[in-house]
Amino acid sequence: MGTLEWVAASIPAVMWVGLLLTPWRPWSTREHIEADPQAGSVDLSEITVLIPARNEADVIGLTLTGLQSQGHGLQVIVVDDQSSDATAQIAASFPNTRVVSGQPLPEGWAGKLWALEQGKSHVRTPMTLLLDADIQLQPGLLAALLAHKRKDNRQFVSLMADLRRTSFWDRLLLPAFVYYFKLIYPFALSNSSFRHVAAAAGGCILVDTEALQRAGAFASLRNALIDDCTLARQVKNAGYRTWLGLSRSVVSLRPYGDLRSIHDMVARSAFTQLGYSTAMLLIVTILFIFAYGVPFILLGSAQSWRLGLVALIAMMLSYLPMLRYYQMRLTWALLLPLSALLYIGMTWSSAIRYWRGVRSRWKDRTYST
Predict the structure, then answer these.
(1) CATH second-level architecture of 42-255?
(2) pTM here?
């Protein structure tokens, strides 16, 4: 085997072994917070929950029920974003919950951010919990999150929700979604003072209200489709400390179940993640080919099968912590290359939508390029 062939064959092994050895350990699940069931009733009067809701009648009741179990004094504002179902009526039936009727979406705004902007003016507490309408907090979670925020002296803390896994496609793709997110935004770097990496999970963010105001939220990021990471970047650039972790106690109520639903979730923002850059799309595609495809090709080579085997073993080892955290069978690691193939396909689908003039499509709204 010539030098050039040996170098090419070595790339996948170097990539995966290098990933395992990186000091910030993007494959790790060490950054996490779980509910403290022993917390009891805690004083949460310093927090206002801000929930943007558009046609969420099927889940908003469970979300608000979860908040009722967190402690006393918690104030809740639900911004009804032009819903055509019973979202507002259900929300209004809960105690300490105020429903704000959202105004029509102005040009240049993303729907969720416009709803949050309208609700922000009603917040009077030192802290704000930004919560998606389909996120249920387990009892004791908010107390644990608040304690971590104070102990670590953070002004912005967020948790990535546990996505429901009820089908083969859910189990194949949703833990991998979190895994890839952590590779793109290593939590250890995002949680450090390193300014070039900032990330958040928009479903559950506890933030100082003052930090929100000084970061210019939400008007300054009004058309951002990846609003959580954009917000984290602006808060971090304003001089505040951010933190992001996982949690099995922050439960997503939204069912996916089939490949099409997951595709729609990923495709609405995948090309946005690449800055709408065709060059970046090609680079990522080449990286995926080397990382996931070339090791299998090498297994058929009499001279370089060992390099292919090393790459595959390192690849699967990097995925095992995520599977353990979500209490899944470790044999799902064998299907990681399949999930990679589907994700690169969904990214191309996102790019094709953009080239056809659709930047994103969500909640019966289309955002043009």
Answers:
(1) Alpha-Beta Complex (3.90)
(2) 0.94
